[in-house]
Amino acid sequence: MSRALPLLALLGPAAVLGAALFSQYVGGLAPCQMCLWQRWPHGIAIGLAALALLLGRGRPAALILLLGALALLVGSGLGVFHAGVELAWWQGPTECSGAPATGLSAADFVERLKAAPLVRCDVVAWSFLGISMAGWNAILSAGLAGVTLLAARVQASSSASQ
Known about the structure:
Layout: H1 4-25, H2 33-55, H3 59-86, H4 106-115, E1 127-128, E2 131-132, H5 133-160
């Protein structure tokens, strides 16, 4: 059991990140800027879980897993924020959301159109059971943070029993 949870802390974020990359490169679902932000915590959690697995049991591995759980909680928060933008609960970043273009000259407006991203952050590109990819990311990241916290607890208790 002492290696199973850290392994799950590695494989879970890898599966979520793999699904995002699969949907992009195989499914043709281009990510928006906020989607890309949500990938970073998974990559960090994967690296930290791999390091914890290399260290084995003990307090150092537990502390590294705690950092991985924190990264996943940040990812969950980003997913909640992005889902809120998609649902128009709040305004997203102006660089990838439909912010009003007021007070611009015609030339500035044309330049803004040229610089606009192709994929908007405030539009749901894919959903399952009424939950967008950002929403699923929030849910899965929170669950994986819980698994990673449990893995850290097991690692810390295994060092105390040695």
